[in-house]
């Protein structure tokens, strides 16, 4: 590499030109090999497609023949003929069956004979095949509707040396004692073309050699003689599935593909000479060599012009890069524009893209630093606010303890009780776990109500209906006191008469904790209730509560906490009527994994 750096640009370009020539040669060679592989693959696919087409032809013809056989086997005239005891009626039925055979024969070309043998010896045929097919009745097995006997030699009875024989049992299909009993046997005698089509024509069109061989290794149809085919050992005829491999035959190598047809116990064989596959590759090879020589000559002619055109843009690029390297901020904003070959233009474009990327990353870095600095400021503010929130409750709690002591000394029992209850609430709010037993939460509510009893006296009547099964359920701390406070402050306090506050708890059918806080205070009008319910449905309650609804922020706060901890199916439901009181229903999950996740 160091030696290459010390060479002139012209020498380096010469080396690059040689490397390009080698690369082009490698590409041409790889292309030639790939094309040879593709041609071989296409020819192999040709044989596979031919086998597939032949197989489809066989299956299509087989389906037609089988449908015709089923139509005859289940025909009422045929079945009645085979069991009719009355000779006169049987004769009339035989005429109708004979017409049915003739009509069926016209539906498919190549049907040479249709024969029916009854279990009691009666029979019908249309071409004299009764005696020829009778020995094959015993070969039919239960469980298979159609039986293929392969290629059969019936002499010259049907003017063909070899024909196909297909058999089927006839089952009685009418209700009664004979239902599903075998009442006869049906045979179709067909020519090879009726089942196989013109395999020779297909092979000639595709320049291949094709055979159709039955289970007795007889050639059913093809364009080669019997003794020639025997030399191939039929490529695995009698096995399941398909076989594809090279075979040697008569001094040549062939790519052969055979497909086994289990229903017919036969196989389709298609072959193509391997030399034919590569026949066109010599012309392609010569074409590639000529193109390489012409391309090399053209490259030599263009070398001088290309070398001169490259040097000037390279020098310009180097000078610009040197300017950027010196760190001149004014130059960093500039961009280079090079006129030259694709490689030079690409280098200039990529270098400009790099400068654009540097500018973009620099701006992103500055924005990120600013965002991190702002986040750090917010973090410090939050820490300071947290410290203040800890200082204020502790200060208030200590002050309440001092008032409690002074009230005890002065004998002011009510002030002492109020200070004690308020101190318990403060202590509960700033200490302990975020999840507490429901019984503990009720204790805080009781402390709050004790203060309100001192304030309202007989005007406040508190009724509590607590299910004992709820006491050990864990709930988020300070979830109930804001609701009770709202009922007292906004519902009962404006009421001049004596008010009732009812607190009820129970477990519903899903074992969720239900707490009901109900008062008979002044209630809310429809507009105010609608605003409150809309606020409870919002994820951010502060976006929905206006100035006149600030006293309901406790509701929205509690509702938001419950939904964040327990899920969207939990929270508060509020019902109220102006002058008719307010009912708040709280639904909490008792699943421990939800509550302890906070």
From TrEMBL:
It is a multi-pass membrane protein. Pfam families: HATPase_c, His_kinase. Residues 308-363 form the HAMP domain. SUPFAM superfamilies: ATPase domain of HSP90 chaperone/DNA topoisomerase II/histidine kinase. The keyword Transmembrane applies. One of its GO terms (molecular function) is phosphorelay sensor kinase activity. Keywords: Cell membrane, Kinase, Membrane, Phosphoprotein, Transferase, Transmembrane, Transmembrane helix. The chain crosses the membrane at residues 12-33, 286-306. One of its GO terms (cellular component) is plasma membrane. It is found in: Cell membrane. This is Two-component system sensor histidine kinase YesM. It comes from Cohnella phaseoli.
């Amino acid at each position: 590499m160091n030696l290459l750096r010390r060479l002139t640009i012209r020498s380096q370009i010469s080396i690059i030109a040689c490397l390009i020539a080698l690369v082009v040669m490698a590409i041409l060679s790889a292309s030639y090999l790939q094309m040879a592989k593709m041609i071989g693959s296409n020819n192999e696919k040709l044989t596979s497609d031919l086998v597939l087409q032949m197989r489809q032809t066989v299956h299509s013809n087989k389906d037609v023949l089988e449908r015709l056989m089923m139509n005859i086997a289940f025909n009422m005239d045929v079945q009645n003929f085979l069991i009719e005891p009355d000779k006169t009626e049987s004769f009339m039925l035989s005429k109708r069956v004979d017409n049915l055979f003739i009509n069926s024969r016209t539906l498919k070309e190549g049907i040479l004979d249709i024969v029916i043998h009854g279990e009691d010896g009666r029979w019908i045929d249309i071409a004299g095949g009764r005696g020829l097919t009778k020995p094959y009745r015993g070969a039919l097995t239960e469980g298979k509707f159609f039986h293929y006997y392969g290629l059969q030699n019936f002499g010259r009875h049907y003017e063909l040396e070899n024909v196909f024989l297909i058999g089927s049992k006839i089952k009685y299909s009418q209700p009664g004692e004979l239902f599903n009993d075998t009442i006869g046997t049906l045979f179709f005698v067909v020519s090879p073309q009726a089942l196989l089509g013109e395999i020779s024509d297909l092979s000639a069109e595709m320049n291949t050699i094709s055979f159709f061989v039955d289970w007795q290794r007889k050639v059913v149809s093809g364009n080669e003689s019997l003794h020639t085919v025997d030399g191939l050992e039929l490529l695995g005829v009698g096995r399941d599935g398909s076989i594809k491999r090279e075979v040697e035959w008569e001094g040549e190598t062939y790519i052969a593909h055979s497909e086994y047809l289990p229903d017919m116990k036969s196989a389709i064989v298609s072959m193509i000479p391997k030399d034919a596959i590569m026949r066109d590759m010599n012309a392609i090879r010569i074409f590639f060599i000529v193109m390489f020589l012409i391309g090399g000559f053209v490259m030599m002619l263009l070398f001088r012009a290309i070398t001169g055109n490259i040097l000037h843009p390279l020098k310009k690029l180097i000078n610009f890069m040197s300017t950027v390297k010196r760190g001149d901020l004014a130059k960093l904003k500039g961009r280079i524009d090079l006129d030259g070959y694709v490689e030079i233009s690409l280098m200039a474009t990529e270098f400009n893209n790099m400068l654009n990327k540097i500018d973009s990353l620099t701006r992103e870095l500055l924005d990120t630093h600013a965002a991190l600095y702002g986040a750090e400021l917010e973090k410090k503010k939050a820490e300071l606010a947290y410290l203040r929130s800890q200082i204020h409750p502790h200060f208030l709690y200590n002050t309440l303890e001092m008032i409690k002591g002074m009230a005890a000394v002065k004998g002011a029992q009510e002030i002492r009780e109020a200070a004690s209850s308020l101190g318990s609430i403060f202590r509960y709010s700033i200490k302990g776990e975020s999840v507490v037993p429901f019984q503990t939460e009720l204790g805080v509510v009781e402390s709050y109500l004790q203060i309100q009893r001192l304030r309202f006296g007989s005007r406040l009547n508190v009724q509590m209906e607590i299910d004992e099964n709820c006491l050990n359920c864990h709930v988020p701390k300070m979830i109930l006191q804001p609701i009770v406070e709202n009922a007292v402050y906004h519902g009962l306090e404006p009421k001049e008469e004596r008010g009732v506050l009812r607190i009820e708890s129970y477990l519903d059918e899903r074992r969720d904790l239900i707490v009901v806080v109900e008062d008979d205070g002044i209630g809310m009008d429809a507009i105010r209730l609608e605003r409150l319910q809309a606020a409870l449905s919002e994820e951010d309650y502060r976006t929905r509560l206006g100035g006149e609804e600030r006293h309901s922020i406790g509701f929205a706060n509690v509702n938001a906490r419950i939904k964040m901890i327990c899920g969207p199916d939990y929270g508060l439901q509020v019902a109220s009527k102006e002058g008719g009181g307010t009912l708040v229903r709280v639904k909490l999950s008792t699943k421990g994994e939800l509550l302890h996740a906070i």
